[in-house]
Amino acid sequence: MQRNVLASLPSWCSHWLGYRDDPVKPPPKYLIYLWSFIGAFCGLSVLTALFSYSEYFLSRGVPVIVASYGASAVLVFGAIESPLAQPRALIFGHFISALIGTCVTKLFEFLPDARFHELRWLAASLSSAIAVVAMEVTETTHPPAGATALLPATNEEIRALSWYFLPIVLLSSAILMVVGLINNNIQRRYPIFWYAPVKPQPAKPADQEKV
């Protein structure tokens, strides 16, 4: 299904969405290292530049970058064939974790400030643990998102964002994915799948092939 949908698009479009008619031959190691460096540099530079120089985000106290995206860059640009690096895991893993972290932190904020700070470790641990299970259930496991779940309880800048943390996470994930689509499809292929791995077609029996 996934391949058919992408195959119906013009080749100039489907190529940048990761579709290939034929298997992609891996480039030499030195080119893989080069494109991993370029992709990680460009992806993180776009994120930090956006949040550092946009008055819109500065006025809302958005941090220069959500720290967990440094780890996401390792997957999106350095391990592009891993299921953990595919768009479904990148987008929904971070969003689900951010939502859980924000909700758990909000519950703990009903406590007095002094008590909240004493139990900050519990809020952070619960957030990350619940996020791990939620990602497993939804098949969106993305290891850096475990840190995203921690941030509302442990980072004052993120805590101050409150619910606004969720669109920031969505935007950050989308930007990293777009840079990944451009960079990784020049000489490699990304994503390997969008929603779920494409199951290989069963081989035809030899007697049917002769017919």
Automatic annotation (TrEMBL):
<feature type="transmembrane region" description="Helical">
    <location>
        <begin position="57"/>
        <end position="77"/>
    </location>
</feature>
<dbReference type="InterPro" id="IPR007065">
    <property type="entry name" value="HPP"/>
</dbReference>
<protein>
    <recommendedName>
        <fullName>HPP transmembrane region domain-containing protein</fullName>
    </recommendedName>
</protein>
<keyword id="KW-1133">Transmembrane helix</keyword>
<feature type="transmembrane region" description="Helical">
    <location>
        <begin position="89"/>
        <end position="108"/>
    </location>
</feature>
<feature type="transmembrane region" description="Helical">
    <location>
        <begin position="30"/>
        <end position="51"/>
    </location>
</feature>
<feature type="domain" description="HPP transmembrane region">
    <location>
        <begin position="27"/>
        <end position="191"/>
    </location>
</feature>
<dbReference type="InterPro" id="IPR058581">
    <property type="entry name" value="TM_HPP"/>
</dbReference>
<keyword id="KW-0472">Membrane</keyword>
<feature type="transmembrane region" description="Helical">
    <location>
        <begin position="161"/>
        <end position="182"/>
    </location>
</feature>
<keyword id="KW-0812">Transmembrane</keyword>
<dbReference type="Pfam" id="PF04982">
    <property type="entry name" value="TM_HPP"/>
</dbReference>
